[in-house]
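Now for our specimen.

. . .
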Amino acid sequence: MTGERDDRPPPDFAMLRAVEILASLYERARPRTPHLPPPVERPLLLFNEALALEIGVTRRADVGRILGHGVPYPAAGWETHALEGRDHLRLFLSLFFRDDVLIGAELYVPRGRTAPALVPRRLGSFRLLPGEIEPGMSSASLDERFGRLETATGALYDETFVARYPGGVAYLFARDGVLDRIALYRDDDTAATNPEPCARPS
């Protein structure tokens, strides 16, 4: 009715703004399903001229003939070798087998204090194919096959990229814009949203 007095208190604009800010913070922190590029048609593999490492294909005996026995690091089941990468970068190659078939491979810069003091072997650099991608490269050089995942604050790496392919998934981790780790795993339902490097820290 016209002329009636409105006894309601005026809106508390400071409180409304606080609610908006909290809602915005919640929205940013809420887990999201990443929008990933479609899987590529060809398998990705770690390759050098002496040895090709393909998930689900390479056998332990193939690796043993070239690299010999690895050190059990960073956890039970992993076999780790030290190699020299591009520009004399010291790298670890950690491999995981099931039924003597490769199901996990990581090529990375060892950074933890617990990393064994292995002397790197010069066998020629391993790189991710297709694409000739290797640790030490700029993460800006990655192509459209690799989708970017959100990285938790305080994580060991500040950029995480993923590409899916038949039978497997590849993760690339970077620090300060430089690729530090390449990981290939047998594909599963959780791999695309929960990448876990084999060693944390390594």
Remarks:
- The longest helix spans residues 13-29.
- DSSP finds two helices and ten strands in the chain.
- The first strand starts at residue 45 and ends at 48.
